[in-house]
Each structure stands twice: as C-alpha cells, then as structure tokens.
Design a protein that fits this description.
mainly beta, 6-stranded mixed sheet, 9% helix, 41% strand, globular
C-alpha cells in the first residue's frame, strides 16, 4: 500500500472508530448491546440444584438447541465435594425459551457426572455426548487402574428428545497409567473428512514442569466410524487442561487450551496436520486468565474461501467481562473483540445457527459467575461488522 492510500485508510478507520461504541476500541451501531438477546437457561437454586455450572451447547440437525450443564445438587464446589447430576434443557425457538430440566445422568449418591461435551454427526444427525463419571469422594485422588474415574458416552437419534443408556469407553479414552480423563468441556467437531473430534485432557506425568505436581495435558479423542469407537491422540507438550479444537480452512486442526499454571498470562495453542493424532510444539495464545473458553469456525458463505474463527472468553480482571474475539488469519491473531456482557463471567460455549447467527451459553451473575447460565444470541450482522472492521484493520496494517 502506498503512503497516500495508507493515510486515507488510517483516517477513515479513525473516523469509523469514533462513531462506534461496543467493540474493543472498534465498534459499530449494529453491534451494540441492544442487538444481543440474553435469556436465562439455568438459575442456581432452581429445580432442586444448588448451582449450575460448566455449560455446553449444540444445535441439533432439526434446529433444536440443547444446553447441558452440571447440576451441582449440594453446593457450588467441583466434583468430589458433593453430588453432581448431568442435566440439560431444550429450546425450539432459537434460545428464547427453554424446557424444564431433564437429568441425563444421575450418578450413585455422592458421585459426579461432569464436563459435558457434545457433538453432532452431520450425516446421520446423531448427537453424541461424552463425559467423565466420578466415584464419590475427592476426584484428585483418582488412581490409575481404578474406576475412580470412568468415561461415559450416550447418544440421541431424535434431536435430544431421548437418549441411549450410558456406554463406558474408559479403556478407549484413558491410558492405563492415567488416573483420569476429562472432556472439553463444551463441544466437539466433525472435520471435512468425517472424523469426529472431542477435546479432552488427562494426567501428563511425562511433562517437565516441576512447578506443578498435578501435571495435565490436552489431547483429542477421535472417531472415524461415527462414534462407535474412539482413539486417543497425542497429548500436547505443555501443562494444560480444559480446551477446544477447531478445523481451520486448510484442513489442519488448532487446539486452544487453558494454561494449568496460574503464573502464565496466556493460553496455549498447537496445530495438528493429521486430524488430532499428533500436535506441533505449543505456542502461547490468547492472553486470558485461567478459564474454559470456546472456539468456533465461522463460514463466510461464499465471500471468500477462508472461514473466520470466533473465540469467547473473559477480558478480566479475573473472571469478569465476557468477550467475543474474531480472527481472519486462521487463529494467528484475534485483533477484533466485542464485549458481550459486563460483570462476572465464567465458562462459555459457542454454537452456530443456520442463518449465521451465533449463540453463547455462559456463566454469569450480579455478584458471582455461579448465579446463572445465560444464552446470548448474536445476529449475523454483528459478526459481519466485526469482519468488516478486521478488513479495515488489515488494510491499514
């Protein structure tokens, strides 16, 4: 770009930014908070559960939204400190209203069903959910070779109306030397080749990290037969845990994982050239406090060959201020961000509507992130505005 054109583009971008009000320094009226629909899905204290946490959302083939969560019956604490059911609700109107509470898995008294992670097999429409099941007691004591932690799978062939009995897949999802395997949480994906990918993490005693005795690492569970059987991919070579995986435009996979060490300011990312079987050397990713974030490929519907990537997480300080970030370069950078909600913000999960709208299921409240789980719908025009601004930013730079 010559100097005169760059000056003109810079001046235009400054003017454009001056008339806008919702993006991180860059916004537009079409993307203002009034355009976002927020609807409560789970409210702590309702329907016989003390707290709801760990959101997961998918859109079934018929358009039904299914929102999953941990129903923490006794208190707000993590697995190992009270009974936790795996629960879900359905929406048939795009997330505006939701069904009553359904219990998908009710463990033995004091046990825990956690980390819901679901995926849709596109050809059949089958919905598959995989989750860990914990014996009563503290999950930190899960021992290799025991049933302290098991990995379970269920499926639905009628868009979430009914579900199969649980099938144990621990031997496929957990190595003998591991004390546990956890999923996601959030959603899985199906690649262009048809492979199903589920994000997971487990013990990683092989890591050279003396600062953390509870070393963990993210990896992919993958299936090439529609979810009938699963294989474990290689763990990424850094201390990580909760994660999401996305397919980028050239068919490679990118993993975005929560840092296990609170001293590190950024998440970790890595690339797979073989469908999640092996991963590149991890690099630092999004600057973000420790949290479960979400990652989604966003098709531009013929505007160009590459998809956008969307990332939802927290801006901070600490667990506050939910944001949506956009990448136009396949996850190398996420230069444009939009504020979704102020105040307490926790875990989130993204889903895509057929018309291009985006949904976020996320933890929030007035005083803490444990008060409720909201569903927020973001119109396609807002995403397009973010993309257009990213193009201006790219042209100036």
């Amino acid at each position: 770009m010559n100097a005169d054109k760059k000056v003109i583009m810079t001046a235009f971008l400054i003017w454009f930014m001056a008339i806008c009000s919702n993006f991180e320094g860059v916004s537009c009226n079409a993307g203002s908070p009034k355009d976002l629909e927020h609807h409560t899905v789970f409210k702590s204290g309702d329907e016989s559960h003390h707290t709801y946490r760990i959101p997961s959302v998918i859109r079934a083939k018929d358009g039904t939204l299914i929102a999953f969560a941990e129903g923490r019956r006794d208190n707000k604490k993590d697995p190992g400190h009270g009974h936790i059911n795996l629960v879900y609700k359905l929406s048939h109107d795009g997330g505006r209203t939701w069904s009553s509470l359904h219990i998908l898995d009710k463990p033995k008294e004091g046990g825990c069903a956690s980390n819901p992670t679901a995926v849709v097999e596109n050809k059949s429409g089958r919905i598959i959910i995989i989750y860990p099941l914990w014996e009563p007691g503290n999950n930190k004591l899960s021992r290799p070779g025991t049933s302290d932690n098991r990995v379970m799978m269920r499926f639905s062939d009628d868009n979430g109306k009914s579900w199969s009995n649980a099938e144990e897949i621990t031997h496929q999802a957990r190595a003998k030397e591991w004390g546990y395997t956890c999923l996601g949480p959030g959603h899985g994906i199906q690649t262009e080749t048809g492979r199903l990918i589920m994000p997971a993490f487990a013990n990683a005693p092989q890591l050279q990290d003396d600062d953390d005795p509870k070393k963990r690492a993210a990896f992919a569970l993958y299936s090439d037969d529609g979810g009938k059987s699963w294989k474990r991919g290689q763990q990424i070579d850094v201390n990580t845990n909760e994660n999401q995986i996305v397919e980028i435009s050239d068919g490679r996979l990118m993993i975005d994982a929560r840092q296990s060490n609170p001293a590190y300011p950024a998440r970790w990312m890595a690339i797979s050239n073989d469908g999640g079987q092996t991963w590149s050397k991890p690099e630092q990713g999004q600057v973000c406090a420790q949290i479960c974030a979400s990652l989604l490929s966003y098709p531009l519907k013929g505007r160009c060959s590459d998809n956008l990537l969307l990332w939802s997480g927290i801006k901070g300080p600490k667990r506050t201020n939910l944001i949506l970030r956009l990448s136009y370069d396949q996850g190398t950078t996420f230069p444009i961000e939009m504020l979704i909600g102020t105040g307490p913000a926790g875990y989130s999960d993204l889903t895509l509507f057929e018309n291009g709208d985006v949904g976020i299921l996320w933890e929030t409240g007035k005083e803490s992130t444990n008060e409720k789980i909201l569903f927020t719908r973001i119109p396609r025009k807002v995403i397009m505005n973010m993309w257009q601004i990213s193009n201006l930013n790219r042209n100036v730079n």
